[in-house]
Specification:
Chain A: GO terms for molecular function: monoatomic cation transmembrane transporter activity. The complex is a heterodimer of chains A (162) and B (137). Chain A is built from 5 helices and 3 strands; from the N terminus they run H-H-H-E-H-E-E-H. By secondary structure, chain A is mainly α. The N and C termini of chain B lie far apart (60 Å). Classes of the chains: A mainly alpha (162), B mainly alpha (137).
């Protein structure tokens, strides 16, 4: 199984994206998409040498739901700040978030989530991979914001990349 | 095409256009580069989302077909938006450090250093055998 499908999640994603692009489910589409799903993971194997195991179960779906909800909320918050807050009242701050995640993939997910959600953009990772540099548009309490990021996103990613 | 579908499409289009406008406004009026980055990465995500849902509703009501391309567009947007924001932020950090630009208007001030003895990955190559490096083993 591992030999034929070295990366089942990538294969599934390729097939789904292919069918979405074709915008119809036909036998030809499934065969061609299935061929790509079998061949591409094999050829790209050298690009992901020690990828972590991901669990696409309950925790993953819960994480997606929370992030989608936060994105909607984030849009209204940022729109409010842009429209009604004067620049000199804006409490923009740099945050240094210590990270306990141990794989590049998990840290990338965390950084991407931070960039998409309320008032924060991740700017950089430290050279030893233990800190994220995050710019926040408006925070009252920096320590509380860092704790919120760790509790809301990092703790959940820990369970997905277990 | 039913009137209800028309109304839904119009509301979604206006919502999307409104958020796109606010995002662009943020780009113009926020004081410095890092604050300006918040406009396009967030306020426009929902704007584009609303426009894409409007497109789905339109094709369903007008031609009676469900389209899936909108789902793909939002997937690609969610992957690319944080990465382009990250690239802009890294270039910005670099230009601040080398003195190519100075930012008197910045609210947050200069970026802090990470804890420990390290530097940010923009200034120091990711160290081997740490989570920042993909060249392990």
């Amino acid at each position: 199984m591992r030999h034929v499908l070295p990366h089942p999640a990538l294969s599934a994603m390729l097939l789904i994206v292919w069918l979405l692009m074709a915008n119809s489910i036909t036998i030809g589409g499934v065969v061609l998409g299935g061929a790509f799903a079998l061949i591409l993971p094999k050829f790209t194997q050298p690009f992901w040498p020690d990828r972590p195991r991901m669990r696409f179960g309950r925790h993953f779906l819960g994480y997606l739901a929370i992030v989608l909800l936060d994105i909607v909320v984030a849009n209204f918050q940022v729109a409010w700040l842009i429209l009604f807050r004067r620049s000199r009242d804006l409490r923009a701050r740099w945050l240094v978030v210590p990270i306990d995640l141990t794989t590049p993939e998990a840290i990338t997910m965390l950084a991407g989530t931070i960039s998409l959600t309320p008032g924060t953009v991740s700017a950089d990772v430290s050279a030893d991979g233990r800190f994220l540099l995050v710019h926040a548009l408006d925070v009252a309490d920096e320590a509380a914001e860092v704790a919120r990021i760790k509790r809301r996103y990092e703790a959940r990613l820990h369970r997905i990349f277990a | 095409m039913s009137v209800i579908a028309d109304i839904v499409i119009v509301v979604l289009l206006l919502l999307g256009a409104g958020f796109a406008l606010i995002g662009s406004l943020g780009l113009v009026r926020l004081p410095s580069t890092m604050e300006r980055l918040h406009g396009p990465t967030k306020a426009t995500t929902l704007g584009l989302g609303a426009l894409l849902v409007a497109s789905v509703v339109y094709f369903r009501a007008r031609f009676g077909v469900w389209t899936a391309h909108e789902a793909l567009i939002s997937l690609f947007l969610f992957i690319t938006a944080p990465i382009s924001a990250n690239m802009i932020a890294k270039v910005h950090l670099h230009r601040l450090r080398t003195g190519a630009i100075s930012e008197p208007d910045s609210i947050a001030g200069p970026p802090p250093r990470p804890g420990g003895d390290g530097e940010w990955a923009t200034f120091e190559a990711p160290r081997r055998d740490t989570p920042a490096s993909t060249a392990n083993s």
